[in-house]
Design goal:
The protein has 116 residues and is an all-beta fold. The protein has no helices and 10 strands.
């Protein structure tokens, strides 16, 4: 069955960086777009970023554009989210999921807390 395991979260200071990872199994990873999402206050999950199966198309929410970078390694069935210039409003539980603009909880999530 589909399994997605997010990791890499933690505590970072404003302006700091974290790299999230998502390990995928149970499906043909290399043919699926993948995305990251996080809860938005009062709105359910907010889409953060998506990447096509071959990495040819990438997009970001305006709130993270220029600060976050999504990437993937199809040989390792992994998708990553490099988060730079972190802000307190980036604090959230981050989920990866199948699909380019997916907004569902793929796995258990990984907590990112940005605080001084």
């Amino acid at each position: 069955q589909v399994k997605l395991v997010e990791s890499g979260g933690g505590l970072a200071q404003p302006g700091g960086a974290l790299r999230l990872s998502c390990a995928a199994s149970g499906f043909t990873f290399s043919v699926y777009a993948m995305s990251w999402a996080r809860p938005a206050p009062g709105k359910g999950l907010e889409w953060v970023s998506g990447i096509y199966s071959d990495g040819s198309v990438i997009d970001y929410a305006d709130s993270v554009k220029g600060r976050f970078t999504i990437s993937r390694d199809n040989a390792k069935n992994m998708v990553y989210l490099q988060m730079n210039s972190l802000k307190p409003e980036d604090t959230a539980l981050y989920y990866c999921a199948k699909g380019f603009r997916a907004t569902q909880r793929g796995g258990q999530g990984t907590q990112v807390t940005v605080s001084s």
